[in-house]
């Protein structure tokens, strides 16, 4: 998480050359998803648009996501079958947020297990969300200029 914060503050991709850790990168990507959804929700509201943006944590699902992470894959395969969700259970919160009438009009929320949940303090950091948005926009603009 600190690497993401540092990345945004420096507005550079040079840190990608640092030592790579797949679990850390996965966690950073999930934080970025929540930050982006929160900033999108804020911007939509500020522009008076009746469009919602929320974040969903589906839970730990029995997929092959960690198949290349040796020890973690073994632990999930041996012990995880009792505590992880199947694909249908994992999709339940996403379907709930997209379709349930109780969620209509809610925006900028974080959901887990079909309920509003509390995200991490970093995920609720509005300044960090704005920095990520601006950083992402800069990358998109750079790509657009080189195409």
Give an account of the 3D structure.
It is built from five helices and three strands. By secondary structure, it is mostly helical. The chain has a single domain, classed as Rossmann fold (3-Layer(aba) Sandwich). It has a three-stranded mixed sheet with strand order 1-2-3. Helix 2 packs across helix 5. The longest helix has 25 residues. It starts with a helix and ends with a helix. About 3% of the residues have low confidence. This is NAD(P)-binding Rossmann-fold superfamily protein. It comes from Actinidia rufa. InterPro entries: NAD(P)-bd_dom_sf (IPR036291), TIC32 (IPR055280).
Task: Tag the structure with descriptive keywords.
single chain, Rossmann fold, three-stranded mixed beta sheet, 5 helices, mainly alpha, 147 residues, 3 strands
Compose a concise summary of this entry.
With 147 residues, this protein is mainly alpha-helical. The protein is 53% helix and 5% strand.
Mind sketching the topology for me?
Blueprint (H helix, E strand, L loop, with lengths): L1 H9 L11 H25 L8 E3 L12 H10 L7 H13 L10 E3 L2 E2 L9 H21 L1
Parallel strand pairs: 1-2
Antiparallel strand pairs: 2-3
Helix pairs in contact: 2-5
Strand residues, percent:
5-15%
Mean pLDDT: 84
Q: Separation of termini?
A: 31 Å
How would a textbook summarize the main sheet?
3 strands, mixed
| CATH homologous superfamily descriptor | NAD(P)-binding Rossmann-like Domain
Instruction: Note the overall shape.
Output: globular
For the record, the CATH class is: Alpha Beta
What is the fold named in CATH at topology level? Answer: Rossmann fold
Question: What gyration radius follows from the Cα positions, in whole Å?
Answer: 17 Å
Number of helices: 5
Helix content, binned percent: 40-55%
User: What class, by secondary structure content?
Assistant: mainly alpha
């Amino acid at each position: 998480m600190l690497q993401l914060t540092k990345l945004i503050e420096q507005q550079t991709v040079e840190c990608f050359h640092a030592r790579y850790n797949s679990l850390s990168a996965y966690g950073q990507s999930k934080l970025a998803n929540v930050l982006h959804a929160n900033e999108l929700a804020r911007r939509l509201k500020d522009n008076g648009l009746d469009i919602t943006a929320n974040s969903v944590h589906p839970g730990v699902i029995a997929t092959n996501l960690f198949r290349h992470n040796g020890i973690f894959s073994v632990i999930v395969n041996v012990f995880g079958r009792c505590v992880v969700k199947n694909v249908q259970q994992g999709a339940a919160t996403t379907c709930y947020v997209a379709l349930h009438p109780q969620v209509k009009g809610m925006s900028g929320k974080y959901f887990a297990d079909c309920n509003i949940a509390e995200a991490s303090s970093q995920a609720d950091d509005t300044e960090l969300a704005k920095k990520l948005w601006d950083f992402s926009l800069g990358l998109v603009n750079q790509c657009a200029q080189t195409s």
